[in-house]
Amino acid sequence: MTAVPRTTRRLAAVLGGVTALILAAAGCAPAAPQAGGASGSAALEVADTAPGDITPFCPAEPTKVMYVKSAGGHVWEAISHAEFAADAAKCPTVEESWYNGTSGQQGAIAATNAAVAQGAKVMVISPDFGDSQLPSMRKAMQAGVQVVSTVNDVNGQKGVDYVESLVWDTKAIGEKQAEWLATNVKTGKVAFLGGQPGAPSTQKTFDAFKEALGRLAPQIQLVPDTWVATNWDAGQKRRAVAGLLAQNGDYAAFVSDYGASDVGAVQAILDAKAPMPAFLNIGSSQAFVCLVQQHNIPWLGQDGTTRLSAASLRIGLAALAGKPSPEPVPYELMVYADTAAGKTPTCDPSVTPDADLSSSLSVEALKAVLGGT
């Protein structure tokens, strides 16, 4: 890109250190690159490598890869990119970059087109603006770029708009949440707090939750019966939850697709001196972990969302090499926290409140990325 986004400039200075920390912790060095070319028969083959290992797919020639993420939580994006960069660094021939834009749909499309012009061979794209990004993704594929769509599900065609779409398993998420509510909350009202208006990832996650709730926990009322847009922002969640409490009274639970900003929802409940509800979310933070411990909040957290970027890169490099990828699709999140089962992450005051310790990065690497001490 001719103009590097501000976040990219800030992170570039620390990513070398992050990568060294990751490699040192893993006790490994980059494997020798392997030659390979794209092959239409790869999808018919059986992967003979383990998921999570990028080294079998390291290209023999210098290769540019790019990550495009255009909307959402700033901290989540920073950690997600750091995971992408750390995995890319295990291949000595791979040069990685990212676009973390704030100029909306047109900026994301322009970044995709520019990456193609600059010779990217693999692109991991989170289509935050939905199907409007498909034409640029299709053009990239037509130019020979291996495009992997991630995080946001779009109505594209595999093999035409992308080589794979790697999103988290919303059905599994929703079923775990509904089962947990049925067992541990039993009755009452629940609301779903989502991202920006029309966010595809929120819509898909909400649809799966609503279906599972009606099937597995019909005694729980969804109020309102659609998701509440909060732009994944703590301040907006605080205002939204204050409004919900004023309009509907006490809630038994809140569900969201970005737990890090649920700190705002907790603050709204404390402001209103309302009974503390349960929280069920994905993508948490140390600030939320500490609030759970401080206020004894019932919590089911499914996490590991920042790991999708690296998994998507491995899928893209496998496609470039003409090899099948062993990465599971869709991506099932791990249960990171379940207070009902006695599983609660530790509140670590040495880590910046924004850090998500469900990341594959070490605490030291997260501190480097997020500026912790």
User: Termini, distance in Å?
Assistant: 31 Å
Count of alpha and pi helical runs:
11
What proportion of the residues form beta strands (DSSP E)?
15-25%
Unreliable parts:
1-15, 18-44
The whole-angstrom Rg is: 21 Å
Number of strands: 12
Specify the biggest β-sheet.
Answer: 7 strands, mixed
Overall pLDDT metric: 87
Helix content: 25-40%
Q: Structural class, judged by helices and strands?
A: alpha/beta
Coarse shape: globular
Question: What string gives the helices and strands in order?
Answer: HEHEHEHEEHEHEEHEHEHEHEH
Keywords:
single chain; 373 residues; alpha/beta; 11 helices; 40% helix; globular
Structure write-up:
This protein is α/β, with parallel strands linked by helices. The strands form 2 sheets. Strands 6, 7, 8, 9, 10, 11 and 12 form a 7-stranded mixed sheet that branches. Helix 1 packs across helix 2 and helix 7 packs across helix 8. The chain is globular and about 60 Å long. The two termini are 31 Å apart.
Q: What order do the helices and strands come in, and which of them pair?
A:
Layout: H1 6-26, E1 63-69, H2 74-88, E2 94-100, H3 104-117, E3 120-126, H4 134-142, E4 146-150, E5 164-166, H5 170-184, E6 188-194, H6 200-216, E7 220-222, E8 228-229, H7 234-248, E9 253-256, H8 262-272, E10 278-282, H9 286-295, E11 299-303, H10 308-320, E12 334-338, H11 363-370
Parallel strand pairs: 1-2, 1-3, 3-4, 4-5, 6-7, 6-8, 6-9, 9-10, 10-11
Antiparallel strand pairs: 11-12
Helix pairs in contact: 1-2, 1-11, 2-10, 3-4, 5-6, 7-8
